[in-house]
Specification:
The chain contains six helices and six strands; from the N terminus they run αββαααββαββα. The protein is an alpha+beta fold and 193 residues long. It has a domain of 129 residues. The strands form three sheets. It has a two-stranded antiparallel sheet with strand order 1-2. The longest helix is centred in the middle third of the chain and has 19 residues. The chain is globular. The N and C termini lie far apart (41 Å).
Amino acid sequence: MTGGHPAIPVQASEFACVDLVNSAFTDHLGSGQVMDRLDSPEWMAWFLERYELTPDERGPAPIDELVVARRDIRRVLGKWARRVAPSRRDVRLLDAHLRGATFQLRVAPGASALEVRQEPLERSWRWVISAVVASAVELQRDGDPGRLKTCANPDCSWLFYDTTINHARQFCSTTPCGSLIRVRRFRDRIGDR
């Protein structure tokens, strides 16, 4: 548990970069408390297994490096969602995260033809960080910036990719944030009478 929250998020993303960003989040009730799941062994095991990123090396996760990567990814994705181009500094920082891992190209059978795939030379923490940063770059390449949103609850920092047909999703979840804001709005309307 992280500040009364379960170690595993209820609203997981389909993108490793978004789940890493959401490993630090604010209390949706407005206490101002920031929770961080990075140092939770349960969350880390869930995250690494979910994205098939378990490193071969033993030892603790490089939390400081993951925090820096998380900060850089959040900033760059936030700019992308606002349709602001990344700065040269942003590109250099992301590139520095990617340079840490080395890969080889391999030929593999695909659905209808042969494919070229990248395989890591070593499954290290550098590779884990590189893969998560690469997922942020791929999201920007293939995604729609108008679909990447922060929860409309002003006390919630949860990032999500809106997959609804009409792009109308506003909250990380209908409960608690959606319900909480609807109740607040209702009470404000009743109080105005």
